[in-house]
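Thread: quick sanity check before group meeting

JM: Hey all, I'm pulling together slides for Thursday and realized we never actually wrote out the predicted structure for the chain we discussed last week. Dropping the sequence here so it's in one place. If anyone has concerns about the input, flag it before I start.
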Amino acid sequence: MLKKIAFLYFFQCTILFIGFSQTDTIFLKNPSFEGIPRTGLMPKGWTNCNENPEKLPDVHPSGVHGVNKRAVHGDTYMALLTAENGEVERISQELTSPLKAEQCYFFKLSLCRTSQYKSMTRILVEAKDYSTPIKLTIWGSNDACQKAEKLAESNPVYNTNWLDFVFTFQPKKAYKYLMLEAGSDEGVLSTTNGHVLIDNATPITPLSCDSLEQWSINDPNNLYGNFQNSQNLILHDEALRADPKGGRAIYYNQALSAAEQTSAIQAIQLFAKRYPKRKANVIIEEATKKAGKISKKALVNALNELGVAGAAYTISVYRG
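JM (edit): ok, ran it. Output follows.
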């Protein structure tokens, strides 16, 4: 069963990326946001794009603001905040080669939040809680801090454990810069004190637009919204396999790698969104009854963090 999940994920990715050489791949500078863990200090390779240039995003785990979470890759990661006074934090990077117009791309980030994030406000000079879940928006431009085209947007990041968020996008024009922005660009000022933690960015990889169109544009239930804002498309086919009426299931256990566990969790989440009147069929197979209980508890906790209700899935635990 373990091999089945790994193979499915590898097979889907292989189909999407076939026909592109490594020279087409865009490698980011300092993709895991390595730097000195402290407030107001940018990691190398990234540019501060906050409207107030004196206010810099934070590098963690610094212990400041109550943030002590370990990085998922390397030693440090970034935090981007939104504030009720309308301030939004942004960072950008000049790409090693530009995004091409009308080319489809795959990009992945590890995102999460902390249950507590205390930060000082400039107006009242007091510590306020910035733990509200927010989205992350990705922009393309030809100027370091310009918002020329919104390429993708995440769902609100509710999870307090690191999870991989997969983005796909198709720029309308060529762009030299990529910008990450806290929150969602909805034409209004931010009214929320929130944050998102960011780590472990992958290279931006070109992929087949035809393969993506099968999973997004032609999706009859519009699971992903429009193509430019699509998310987690790699897992779409796996989510469809979870339909109990088809006798298929999503497999999960402690022997899976972190990436495979994330894939299984996101597949359940996607199935719940696509088929709200059905239940995803989840099978846990462990060597002992105790191990099965531990795996089930870990899975349920992860799904609760993503806002997936227990009514959306059925878990069967077997000894194997």
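AS: nice. The first helix runs from residue 2 to 17. The chain has two domains: 2-9+234-319, 19-207.
JM: adding both to the slides.
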